[in-house]
Specification:
- The protein has 179 residues and is an alpha/beta fold.
- The protein has five helices and seven strands; from the N terminus they run ααβαβαββαβββ.
- Helix 4 links the parallel strand 2 and strand 3.
- Helix 2 crosses helix 3.
- The longest helix is centred in the last third of the chain and has 14 residues.
- It is globular.
- The N terminus is likely disordered.
Length: 179
């Protein structure tokens, strides 16, 4: 048996795994990146009553401003998830200058398949259809009482517990389970 045929046999048997850098690219983003204004970020985190004991997950984290602000202002831990590698690169650059690098991380992953069960607060700035698609995941993976804050878009018939107007921009608030 040649080295090549042995290698192919090992690959077929699942004994050889491709390095992470060779993984298939993630699918295209569902939305274009539009940053949440800082005044809205501040209002969202205040509405969620974020503390140093929280783990804030920002789904579709863009340039990272929400997890970074949660860490800087409240001492929380932050996790940003974005499918676009360019956004992750920007967020990582912003994190380097933030002074909270040990409290925040960014994951280049699909928010629909990433485990979010560690979150105590989840922030969103997605389209209504994506919020609705996320609803079963939020209810399944998050502990009861996890706070969810969405900029601009609701979750259909799931009535928010609170709604806030920030200079013409709407912020919605729920706690899990969301009905």
């Amino acid at each position: 048996m040649t080295v090549r045929s042995l290698f192919l046999l090992l690959v077929l048997a699942g004994a050889v795994v491709a390095p992470a850098s060779a993984q298939a690219p993630l699918r295209s983003p569902d939305v274009i990146f539009v940053p949440t204004p800082q005044e809205v970020v501040d209002a969202m985190l205040k509405l969620a009553k974020v503390t140093k004991n929280d783990v804030v997950y920002d789904l579709g984290s863009g340039d990272g401003r929400i997890p970074i602000t949660a860490a800087k202002t409240y001492g929380a831990r932050g996790v940003g998830i974005d499918i676009d590698p360019q956004r992750i690169k920007e967020a990582t650059e912003n994190l380097k200058t933030s002074g909270v690098g040990e409290r925040v991380k960014f994951l280049n992953q699909d928010l629909f398949t990433t485990d979010i069960s560690e979150a105590t607060v989840v922030t969103l700035y997605l389209l209504p259809s994506l919020n609705l698609k996320l609803l079963p995941k939020l209810n399944k993976e998050l502990k009861p009482g996890t706070r969810i804050v969405s900029h601009a878009f609701d979750m259909g018939d799931a009535k928010p517990q609170e709604t806030l107007n920030v200079n013409g921009r709407t912020v919605y608030f729920w706690t899990t389970p969301i009905k």
